[in-house]
Amino acid sequence: MKKRDYYLTVISLILLVIFLYFADRYMDAYIVRILNLCAIYTVLGLSMNLINGFTGLFSLGHAGFMAIGAYTTAILTLSVNAKAQNFFLEPIAAPLANVVLPFFPSLLLAGILAALAGFLIGAPALRLKGDYLAIATLGFAEIIRVIFTNTQNITNGALGLKGIPAYTNLWWSYGIAAFTVLFMVLLINSSYGRAFKAIREDEIAAESMGINLFKHKVMSFTIGAFFAGIGGGLLGNLLGTIDPAMFKFTLTFNILLIIVLGGMGSITGTVISAFVVTISQEALRFLDQPMDLGFIVIPGVAGMRMVVFSILLMLVVLFYRHGLMGTNEFSWDRLINILSFKKPLLKGGKK
Length: 351
Prior knowledge:
There is one protein chain. By secondary structure, the protein is mostly helical. The protein has helices at residues 3-26, 29-54, 62-77, 80-86, 94-97, 103-125, 130-150, 152-155, 170-188, 191-201, 203-208, 213-239, 249-262, 267-283, 304-319, 332-339; strands spanning 161-162, 241-242, 291-292, 297-298. The strands form two sheets. A two-stranded antiparallel ribbon has the order 1-2. A two-stranded antiparallel ribbon has the order 3-4. A hairpin with a 4-residue loop joins strand 3 and strand 4 (297-298).
């Protein structure tokens, strides 16, 4: 890394910490909640991009791994009295009734259980390809949701869990998002990351070069499931209440939307897209409400926000077929060239 790039990176991190400190102390709860969601969706987007974008697997099971993470963290952080209040139809299973752990161990255990589920699901499912793999992983995610709906003495069934401690804050969400970005950068630039990309480009060629397809696919799937569980845990402790209906296919689709919009196989694109999508969905919320323009009152139409949002996404995809960043990543040289209106350097040093 150039000395200039090192200094710019350190300055950027310091400015981010200052912004988080200011936001945590002085911004209202609504804006802080949106900022938390941006960071959480960054973690979720990166975990799915590792599987779908970098390894080239078509997985639609992310909502299931998020459900495992959210429920694990919620059950382990709920107080004994809160568990008694939630589980009034049927008492919670005896081993869990008096177990209360701090947030970080609960979050870590949530990721480990989600990774274990990812391994158990991935081992048989990853022998499939393309649409068949997508259908299999979607089926497994639905199985997890149905199991959570019917295990009354563990998850409280369809009633869900309420009164979950609000441990997720800007420091937790952005700290874990920063760690996830760093981990993904190191992983993708390692020999494992190059193997993932080789599998994405051509499985037959990768196998002929000695890459163990099954091992690397399962590894990618398991790591992605781990971070999905972490993201689900953060989301559950941010919202304060969860139920199985939250973890339907729509949630997976929202994350898939983020990685497609940002660029399949781009860490930078996923981060940018997570912020753009999350903030845009909230910024367009006024379209669902009646608007008084002075000379005319336009009645609010429920769902108009998502119609306009979908049209904007269609325009982006039409003009940026490979997403906002494609497979490119952020670099200070690229940013400086853009700000100085210079053409980016191509291979060979030509402009």
